Amino acid sequence: MIRVQKEDFDLATELSALSAGNHNIGGITSFVGLVRDMAEGQHVGAMTLEHYPGMTEKMLEQIEAEANQRWPLEASLIIHRYGRMEPGEQIVLVACASPHREAAFEACHFLIDWLKTKAPFWKLEEKDSGAEWVDARESDEDAAAKWD
Amino acid sequence: MIRVQKEDFDLATELSALSAGNHNIGGITSFVGLVRDMAEGQHVGAMTLEHYPGMTEKMLEQIEAEANQRWPLEASLIIHRYGRMEPGEQIVLVACASPHREAAFEACHFLIDWLKTKAPFWKLEEKDSGAEWVDARESDEDAAAKWD
Amino acid sequence: MKILYFAWMRGKTGIGEEDVSPPETVTDVAGLVAWLKTRGPGFEDAFSDMKVVRAAVNQEFVELDATVGPNDEVAFFPPVTGG
Amino acid sequence: MKILYFAWMRGKTGIGEEDVSPPETVTDVAGLVAWLKTRGPGFEDAFSDMKVVRAAVNQEFVELDATVGPNDEVAFFPPVTGG
Fold first, then answer.
1. Residue A132 neighbours by CB under 8 Å, 6+ apart
2. Domain enclosing residue A103, as ranges
3. Looking at residue C47, which CATH number applies to its domain?
4. If you write DSSP's letter for every residue of B109-136 in order, what string do you get?
5. CB neighbours of B16 closer than 8 A, spacing ≥ 6?
6. Is C41 a member of any domain?
7. Partner-chain contact B58 D59, CB within 8 Å
8. Which CATH number characterizes residue B107's domain?
9. Could you give the number of structural domains in chain D?
10. pLDDT tens figures, A32-58
11. Exposed e or buried b per residue across B32-54, where buried means at least 16 C-beta atoms within 10 angstroms of its C-beta
12. C82 lies in a domain?
C-alpha cells in the first residue's frame, strides 16, 4: 500500500495494520526518515517537501510493485509526507513484511533507495542564509544503481 | 540500550524514545520479529522462549557495543522477549538510528543476524505432534558469518 | 498541451502550470524545450543547464527525444530529493 | 561449581541447575563433561552428541578446552534459536 499525505503517521498503528491477521509474517523491516537540523554544516530550521500529485502516487506504486516482484513479501507499505516539517519530524516510512528476515531487509532497503531517486519530491530547506532547494546527491544515485 | 522482558512492547513508543530530542538522526531502521503459525509445514499453536538470565543481557550488550563500534550510530535498541507467545505476537525489536540511512540499515541487519546466533534464547514450539525444541538453522550461521 | 514546473524551475519560470500551443514543428521534448526558451529570460534561465533538468510526459520519466503532442501533460523539474 | 542446563539439555538431565564438586582432576570443560556423564543415563544422553552442545563459563561462550574451577558458573545448552 502507498500513501502520500500532509499529516504525520503513527508507526505502531501502521505496522500493526500491515501484519494484522497474517501469521505467516516472521519479520517486518521498516525505515523512517526524519528531518535533520543540519545540512552541509548549516543549521536547518525547517523544510518543505514539494511533490507532483498524481505522478508521485504512480511512481510509488511502481516501486512497490517492483519490490513485490523481486522478493516474497506478505505485505509492504510506503507513506511519504509533503508540506512543511520541522527537525525531528517523520518524513517517510517504508516497511516490508515477509516470512523470513532476509527478504524483509533487502526489499525495505530497495524501496527507500529507489524512492530517493524515482519519486518526484523536492526539498526546500530553511537555512540561516535563506530558503534553498536541496541538490540531488550522487550517493543516492549510487545506492539506487546497486539494485539494477 | 538493551532490554530483556516478558511483556510486549510498543514500537512507536520505543522508537520515539530512541530519537527524542536528537535532531542529528536522519533515519531509523528497525526490525520486528513475529511468531509465525507454521514451522516446517506444521502448525504452531504457540511457542515459549527460554533464556539464560544474566548471560542474555551480557551478550546483547556486547552485540550492541559491536554495532556502535562498526557504524556511526546516534542510538540503538534491542528488546527481546521471553516466555510464551502466540502467532502474530512480537518477539524481538532491533533498531538503529543514524544521520544516514546506509549505516542504519547495515547496523540493524547486523544486530539481528548476530543476535540470532549469539544471544542465549531457545524456542520451544507447540505443534500438533507435541512440544518441540527448535533446531538451530545453518542459514542463521551463514547470515552471521557474513559480518565477520 | 499542459506544462508543469516544479521546485526551482517553478521559481525561475515564475509559474507552476500553464497551457501552451507550440507550433506543429514541436514534436519531442527537446523541441518543446527549445520553443519554451524563446518565451522570455525566465524560461531561458530555467532551461539553461539541461543536465539538471528532468522531464516527465503524462507522469512517466522520459528522455529528451520522447514525443509530445497537444493532449500531453509535460512536467519539468530538477533531480528528485525526497525520502 | 554451579552447573546450568537449558532447553532440551535440561529435559534430558532432569535438572535446570545444580551445585557440584568434581574431583580435582577436572580442570577444563571437556573433563567436566566426561565426569558429569558418569552420573547417570540422563547425563550420558544429554552429552552424547557434543556437536549440538554449547558451553559457557561465567556467562561467556567457551570451547571445550576452557579451564574451569570450583567458583565458576558453567552452562550447557544447544545452539541458540532466539530472535
1. A124, A125
2. 2-145
3. 3.10.20.30
4. HHHHHHHHHHS-EEEEEEETTEEEEPPP
5. none
6. yes
7. yes
8. 3.90.1170.40
9. 1
10. 999 999 988 899 999 999 999 999 999
11. bbbbbbebeeeebebbebbbbee
12. no
DSSP 3-state helix, strand, coil percentages of chain A (rounded to 5)? Answer: 35, 35, 30
pTM value surpassing 0.80: yes
- Neighbors of chain C with 3 or more C-beta pairs under 8 Å: A
pLDDT given for residue A27 in this prediction: 97
Chain B neighbors of D75, CB-CB under 8 A:
52, 55, 120
Report pLDDT for B40.
83
The parent domain of residue D13 ranges over 2-77
Residue from the list B49, B54, B135 with its beta carbon closest to the beta carbon of D82: B49
D82 within a domain of the structure (yes/no): no
CA of residue B30 relative to chain centroid, distance: 10
Interface check B46 vs A, CB under 8 A = no
Exposure pattern of A125-139 as b/e (b: 16+ CB <10 Å)? bbbeeeebbbebeee
Shortest CB distance from A112 goes to which of B19, B30, B101? B101
Contacts of D4 in chain B (CB under 8 A): 52
Cell 534553498 identifies what position? A132
Encode pLDDT of B88-113 as tens digits. Answer: 999 999 999 999 999 999 999 999 99
What are the phi and psi torsion angles at C62 (to 5°)?
A: -140, 165
Residue D83 in any domain: the answer is: no
Closest Cα partner for A54 from B117, C53, C73?
Answer: C73
Number of domains present in the structure of chain B: 1
Instruction: For residue A28, give how far its alpha carbon lies from the nearest alpha carbon of chain B (Å).
Output: 5
- Verify whether the Cβ–Cβ distance A87 to B23 is below 8 Å: yes
Nearest to A25 among B11, B19, B34 (CB): B34
The amino acid at residue A32 is V
